[in-house]
Amino acid sequence: MPETLVALYIFVLSCFIGYWVIWGVTPSLHTPLIALTNAISGIVIVGALLVTGLEGVGTTAEIIGFFAVLLASINVFGGFLVTNRMLAMFNKKKK
Amino acid sequence: MMEISVNVQAIAYLVSAILFILALKGLTHPASARRGNYLAMAGMAIAIAATLMGSEVRSYGFILAGVAVGGVIGTVIALRIQMTAMPQLVAALHSFVGMAAVLVALGTFLNKQADGLLNGVLMGELSAGIIIGAITFSGSVIAFGKLQGMISGRPVKFKGQHLLNALLAIATIGFAVHFALTESTLSLAIMTLLAFILGFTLIIPIGGADMPVIVSMLNSYSGWAAAATGFTLQNNLLIIVGALVGFSGAILSLIMCRAMNRSIFNVVFGGFGTAAVEGDGVADAAQKGVKSAAIEDAIYWMEDANKVIIIPGYGMAVAQAQHSMKELMEQLEARGVEVKFAIHPVAGRMPGHMNVLLAEADIPYENVIEMDEINPEFATADVVLVVGANDVVNPAAKDDPTSPIYGMPVLDAGKAHHVFVIKRSMRPGYSGVENRLYYQDNTSLIFGDAKDVSEGMVNQLKGAAH
Fold it and tell me: What does the domain layout of chain A look like in residue ranges?
C-alpha cells in the first residue's frame, strides 16, 4: 500500500476516535476543551522542527521554520497553561 | 544529543497519540480533566523530544531560539489573560496554528525543492496545508478583532458576497492545481494570497451572536491544517492529532448550531439578523408596557424564595459580574434559598464561556446546570434572575412560528413565578429580535449594568442581615 494511502487510513480512523471521544466531553468543559485542542494542535511544532532542523537547510527555509517554531510554541505553552488555569478553577474544593 | 532510530521515534509518536486521546477523554468530567491536561502535556513533551532526537533534525540554534521566545510569550499570555478574554485568546491561538501550518508548508516546499524531491502529490498536500492554514489564520484574526471589539461585531453584509467567496475559492483551487502540475512559484504565491483573502471574506460577514459557532469552526480548521501538514510530511502523529482536533471543533460547531436551530451553512454563508431595531431605553420600554423594577423589589422576592435560578449571558461577561453573582449566591444560600445557574449552550461568545466565568468566581459546578436538565425546574422556581442574557430566554422561539429564532431551544425562564431581568437598555439581542419575555406579567426589568445591579443586591442583603 502506498504511504499516502496508509496516511489516509490513519486519518479516517482517527476521525472516528475523535468523534466518539469528543461527544463524551461534558458541556461545562467546552471552553477548556477548545483551549486544550489549541494546545495540542501546537503539534505542528513537530513539522516546524523538521523544517528548521534539516541538515543543510537553506537560510530562507530556516527563517521560515524559526517563525513556525515560535508560533507553535506560543500555542503549546499558552494553550496548556491556560487550560490548566481554567481546570484548576473547576477543581477548587467547596468551602 | 542521543540519537534514536526511526522505529523508536514511531513508537514514541504512538505513545504520544495515545496520551492525547486519553487527555481528551479526561474532559468527560471536571474531576478527571486536570489529569487529562497533564497527559496531553506529557504527550507533547514526548513528541517534541522524539522529533529532536531523530536523525532528521541536525541543527538546533534556530529551534532553541524559537521555542524560547514562543514559550515565554505563551507563558506570559496564559498567566495574565483575564477569563472574560478567553474567546479572544482562543481566536489568537487558532491564528498562530494556521500561520504555523502555512510556514511549515512553505519551508517544506523550499527544502524539498532544494533536494529535488518535489512531486505532484506532495505539492497537492502542501497546497491543502497552505490553503487551510491561511484561511484559519486570517479568519481567526477577524474573529479576534470582532471579539476584542476592534471590528464591529455586527454582521457585515454586502452585495455579491457569496459570489465573491465562490470565485475566490475556485481561483484558489485553480492556482493550487496549476502549482501542483507545474511547480510554479508564482502560482504558489497567488494561491497563498487568495487563501488569506478568502479567510477574511468568509468570517467578516458573521455577527457577534454567531461567535460560538465561528470559534468552534476555526478550532476545527486549525486541526485540519495540522492534519494536512501531517500528510505533507508523512507524519502520522500530526495526522492523528489533526483529525482529533478537527473533529473536536466540528462537533462543537454542530452542538452550537443545534442550540441555535441553525444549519452550519446558514451560519457560514448567511449573515443573519440586522439588529436594525433600536429602542430608546426606558422611556421607549414603558410605552410598550414593560414593568421596570428597583433592586429592592427583586430582593423582596428573592430573600424569602425557596429556589432562585440565575441565567447568565454575555452581558455578565462584559460587566465582569461573575464575582458579585457568587456573593449574591452566598447571601441567598445563607437565608436558606436554593440557588442554581442555568446555562444555555450558546450563552456568551464561545462554547462553555459562562461555565468558566462562574468557575472563576468559585461557584461550584454542581450549582451550574445545563439547559436540558434545568428546564423542567423553572416552573417550580420562585424567582428567575436574567443577567445579560437575551435571545436564549425568548419564549417566541417556542411559540411564535413567525419569529426568526423560532425553533431554537431556549431556557423556560418565563415559567417561574417572578422574572427579573437585569438589562442596560431595551436594545434587542444580537439576533435583533424583540424579546417577548419582557412583556410578560410576571416579568420586571431592572435597568443598569449587571455588575452595579448585582452589587447593589448584595449590599442590600448584607445590610438587611445586620
Answer: 33-88
